[in-house]
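Need a sequence for this fold. Nothing fancy.
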């Protein structure tokens, strides 16, 4: 990446910068390969942040199906992470996991399950065999105690797993239906919507050497760090993340070394070396020390996160574009990669982080407002759907994390909060699913690459030309849907 003019002496955020197009020989946005350069195995450069309000099983399987990876947070007990990993590994790599009810379940039960998936349908199944489908329209205005077989539709599109996505799309379009049931014999394997059919030709799932979806998990720097790392490796995680607010500290370095040793033992036993990510830091020195202590990927970002109050509480942190640029260069010199963690609100921010040299971009709060995040779907007084989100250093998260300590210690730890305990992340009615957000981000990034003449992320980083803009420069780029 190069600046088109001498950069200023102060640090820059994503909003401070823009990219200038270059002559391109990349004929189509579909010709851009977005495989991450971080070596984790993702086919798009997106990582879901290890935040309790964001990253769980549904998020993990959905994102991995499109080529990214989710990190299960450090506050989730190890046995729960193990069962989450097992479920993700058992999920189909192409078809979405259905929600099913039996014919005699109630309409109320079906309604409560609908919001668990973005595809908007519940399959009525008896003895493993699908009998019908219920969608929101079938359930609206019906007595909650009615049984689903009374309202279900039995006009179904049933396809075998080897049906081409184009065929599934056409069969659904002909019948004006949204969801196809994918069955092997009588057995329901999964579901595919028209949009899923399109997506399955645009994305490649992120899979492990056995062809199963990948998922990561985090470990903090307190307690039995090596013990948790060993248990997570045994559970089958594909990436381990050693995570704390101030990653450039002694306890991180010793914890990271212990995790690296556990990883190496696991590699000796199984022949598979799992990558370790660690952070957060915002300086080249921090990167070098964490690489030295055994990290393959360095997590970069102090203070940019949407739930994060660190900069306002402490004055500490660094504008994220400059942090990513410096840390990516330091990691690259050592043959390692970084993740740009936090502060991403638009596809342009993802593109700029990749231009600055990030291997992948970590997103938390933006994905909190989706069907797939962990929280329950709530509605406000105006009927708008939202999920509750909170920071991992908020008093709420600290209380959870210190649940085994005394009441006194928990209360004292709660005083050191550096995050928001409760915020509403509204679902975008146009893009309520994390897959919709991924579509938007990835189309933006593909396009950014072709403007730079890049057919891969490595080329994008090499070719990108970046300028500095004023506030009015940024404002000029914003759409004005309501006129002026
Ligand atoms: N990227 C970011 O900007 C930030 C991210 N977070 C996220 O919040 C989560 C919790 O992280 P964390 O608060 O580190 O909690 P942890 O539970 O991981 O504990 C952090 C440990 O580091 C010690 N420590 C020393 N200096 C600091 C410091 N300046 N800030 C925090 N801890 C310090 C703490 O001791 P003691 O409590 O005795 O001081 C404690 O033992 C993580 O997921 C992290 O990524 C949190 C803040 C900033
Ligand atoms: N200072 C804090 N940082 C936090 C907290 N919870 C999460 N985080 C960091 O934010 C990113 C995600 O950023 P986002 O803008 O996409 O939401 C996450 O990975 C952490 O590094 C917190 O409570 N305080
Ligand atoms: K912030």
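Here you go.
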């Amino acid at each position: 990446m190069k600046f088109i003019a001498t950069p200023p002496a102060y640090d820059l955020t994503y909003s401070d910068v823009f990219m200038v197009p270059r002559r391109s020989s990349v004929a189509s946005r579909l010709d851009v390969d977005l495989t991450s350069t971080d070596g984790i195995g993702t086919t798009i450069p997106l990582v879901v942040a290890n935040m309790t309000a964001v990253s769980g099983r549904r998020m993990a399987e959905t994102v991995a199906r499109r080529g990214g990876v989710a990190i299960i947070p450090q506050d989730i007990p190890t046995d729960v992470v193990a069962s989450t990993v097992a479920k993700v590994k058992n999920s189909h790599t192409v078809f979405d996991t259905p929600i099913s009810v039996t014919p005699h379940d109630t309409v109320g039960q079906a309604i409560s399950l609908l919001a668990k998936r973005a595809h908007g349908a519940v399959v009525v199944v008896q003895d493993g065999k699908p009998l019908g489908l219920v969608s929101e329209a079938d359930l609206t205005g019906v007595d909650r105690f009615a049984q689903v077989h009374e309202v279900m539709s039995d006009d179904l599109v049933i396809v075998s797993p080897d049906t081409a996505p184009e065929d599934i799309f056409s069969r659904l379009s002909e019948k004006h239906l949204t969801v196809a049931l994918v069955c092997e014999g009588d057995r329901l394997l999964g579901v595919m919507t028209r949009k899923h059919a399109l997506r399955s030709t645009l994305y490649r799932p992120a899979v492990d050497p056995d062809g199963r979806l990948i998922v990561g998990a985090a470990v903090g720097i307190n307690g039995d760090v090596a013990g948790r790392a060993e248990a997570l490796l045994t559970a089958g995680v594909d990436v381990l993340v050693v995570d704390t607010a101030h990653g450039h500290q002694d306890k991180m370095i010793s914890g990271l070394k212990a995790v690296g040793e556990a990883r190496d033992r696991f590699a000796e036993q199984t022949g598979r070396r799992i990558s370790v990510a660690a952070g957060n830091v915002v300086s080249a020195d921090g990167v070098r020390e964490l690489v030295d202590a055994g990290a393959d990927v360095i997590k970069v970002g102090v203070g940019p996160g949407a739930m994060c109050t660190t900069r306002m509480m402490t004055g500490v942190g660094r504008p994220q574009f400059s942090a990513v640029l410096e840390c990516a260069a330091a990691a690259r010199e050592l043959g390692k990669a970084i993740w740009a963690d936090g502060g991403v609100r638009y596809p342009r921010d993802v593109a700029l982080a990749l231009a600055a040299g990030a291997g992948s971009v970590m997103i938390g709060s933006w994905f909190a407002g989706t069907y797939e995040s962990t929280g329950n779907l709530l509605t406000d007084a105006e009927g708008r759907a939202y999920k509750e989100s909170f920071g991992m250093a908020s008093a709420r998260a600290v209380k959870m994390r210190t649940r085994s300590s005394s009441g006194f210690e928990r209360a004292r730890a709660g005083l050191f909060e550096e995050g928001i305990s409760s915020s509403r992340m509204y679902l975008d009615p146009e893009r309520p699913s994390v897959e919709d957000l991924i579509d938007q981000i990835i189309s933006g990034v593909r396009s950014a690459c072709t403007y730079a003449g890049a057919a891969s992320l490595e080329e994008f980083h090499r070719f990108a030309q970046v300028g500095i803009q004023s506030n009015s420069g940024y404002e000029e780029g914003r759409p004005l849907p309501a006129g002026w």
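For context: The pocket of LQESDW3C (ligand 2) is lined by residues 49, 51, 280, 301, 305-308, 310, 341-344, 362-366, 391-394, 418-419 (CB under 6 Å).
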